[in-house]
Specification:
The structure is a homodimer.
Chain A (H helix, E strand, L loop, with lengths): L7 H31 L4 H21 L7 H10 L13 H11 L2
Helix pairs in contact in A: 1-2, 3-4
Chain lengths: ~110, ~110
């Protein structure tokens, strides 16, 4: 996987798919954070919110890694989790799409 | 200060004053957290909220220290910041109240 070449056109497709998934994930996160904050009743809920935000931030930092060497795996995870569809990856060469699809089923 | 003796009655007064200040501080914190969350518009605001919560938690851990050896200084800070009034400290012996009042003016 680390030897794959990415054409300029593929890089544009990849960046768009990546940004779409990340943007939607962050929007969903904002909605959930507002909802969790609105439900806070006692101090422990406050520190639960803090912990939850810290975990979400670390998870996003870990999962959204745009290095081309790991991008097929990143896309495979996003496909598996429903953050991306195969249509979002149209424009990547067949070899990469097959790789991503196979990895998403693991 | 470290040599002060606390009678049983004084310990009750101290605990009540301490819990009152902490309780009010935490209630205010919950209100502000809800308000900050409601104003979130973009991802950076989310991580600002996380940082703010972490700082508040550490500040509260640091300031609300119930060891009798430091309690007069804790009360002095709470008095200075308007979290407690001198009335809340009624029932402590005069020596402690004078010490707390003097320290609160530093």
């Amino acid at each position: 996987m680390y030897e794959l070449k990415w054409s300029h056109a593929e890089k544009i497709v990849a960046r768009r798919a990546f940004d779409k998934a990340l943007g939607e994930e962050l929007e969903a996160l904002i909605r959930e954070a507002k909802s969790r904050a609105a439900r806070i009743e006692e101090p422990l809920d406050l520190w639960d919110l803090e912990n939850w935000l810290t975990e979400r931030r670390r998870e996003i930092d870990r999962r959204y890694d745009y290095r081309y060497s790991v991008l097929p795996l990143v896309f495979a995870h996003l496909l598996r989790d429903g953050r991306l569809t195969e249509d979002d990856l149209n424009g990547l060469e067949q070899e990469k799409r097959d790789l991503i699809r196979r990895a998403s089923a693991l």
